Amino acid sequence: MQEQKYKLNVGKIDEGFVIDHIHAGRGMKLYRDLGLGMLDCSVALITNASSRKMGKKDIIKVECPIDQFDMDVIGFLDHNATVDVIKGGKIIAKPVITLPKQVKNIIRCKNPRCITSIEQGLDQVFVLTDPKNEVYRCKYCETRYGDQDQS
Amino acid sequence: MNELRHLMSPLDLSVEELNALMDTAEKIRSDPERYAHVCDGKILATCFYEPSTRTRLSFESAMLHMGGRTMGFASADSSSAAKGESVADTIRIISCFADICAMRHPKEGAPMVAAAHSTIPVINAGDGGHQHPTQTLTDLMTIRSLKGTLSGMTVGLCGDLKFGRTVHSLIQALLRYENVRFVMISPEELKLPGYIIEELKTKPNAGFAEITKLEEAMPMLDILYMTRVQRERFFNEEDYVRLKDFYILDKKKMRLAKEDMIVLHPLPRVNEIAVEVDQDPRAKYFEQVKYGMYIRMALILMLLRIEI
Questions:
Q1: Is the residue at B5 inside a domain?
Q2: A111: nearest CA in chain B?
Q3: Structure confidence at residue A146 (pLDDT)
Q4: What is the pLDDT of residues B238-250, one digit of tens each?
Q5: What 3 state SS string does B40-63 have?
Q6: Pairwise CB contact (< 8 Å): A138 & B109
Q7: ipTM over 0.90
């Protein structure tokens, strides 16, 4: 195998999160859905980093106060990702990332017959109905996430 | 604890609650006088954002038979929805006027939104193609009253099994009883959705078969549940025209059935049951409507926590 020609180094962070082992290609979606672009702090998104375990992976490093984001979003988008919580330059926690029981306002129901398509101020809520097959359904109309060209 | 309860899906009720509800409905049926004033002073709001004949009148009749009164609207045009009012705001207002609300809405999940903002019990009276729990309660009540049990039945479901919400809910409700066998009778294009087949496969006590010919199924059935092929579910008029009269139950087919089989239908019936079948004593679909009123009476009592 050809040795990798280029190496990108992103420095250590003092306080924040490192989301590692993100399925290659999902990093940008995670970046968007976590609202990282709106944070007033340093964020590094590394895509296609080489990984012995995964071949390729994405990594996100966020330098921010450690109570600032929602683990459920990470669990929903990629529950195989790992998270290191950093404080004082050291890993202080490795929360277990699991599929959340429900997710709020991360994805939208695309069923045109669903009440979420017209009701003002209604949260978009999806509930985990089949953990084995990772099936989420709209709380209101029970449309399966992924059906009807959900994204 | 007097927690506010609503009914969104037939599965909101446990089997014990369901049985108790049917017991109450049976008591009302056998002694209606005793229940003639149990809802004196109570008001039922029927908020129907789309037209309905049977369901709305069944709810209203249920309340009137118990001494209560009714108010409401029969289409979105005659409500504040036409001015753009949200479901959440409408139910907040209705909660000030009525003691209980039955809501039909073309948008799926609308009654659930109403329930979340309501201070009175909300009953889902049909939300688009999603749920219609009181139809399922009606079906269960009819079967139990006419057959004496909900267990050990062979139930034929015929017609539009793909889009028919009443069929899906009835299967899910009957799966909670012992040894129920289903015979799914439909054309290829209107077969039961895969997720319900999967659910059926996980129940060791339930059996099922899928066939195309109604004649083949007739001799083995205890119950035949006919459904209408609904025009509004098709994107293509040609497909609708081709499939709408795929099954027509007539006298000839009825001759193949058991003496004590019963025929049910959520109504309205179009061509799928020939008018000549109405005279057959096994045709129970009009009687079914009456059971629907009794079970709605029992449901109103349960949600208003009125005990007799």
A1: no
A2: B108
A3: 75
A4: 888 888 888 999 9
A5: CCCEEEEEECCCCCHHHHHHHHHH
A6: yes
A7: no
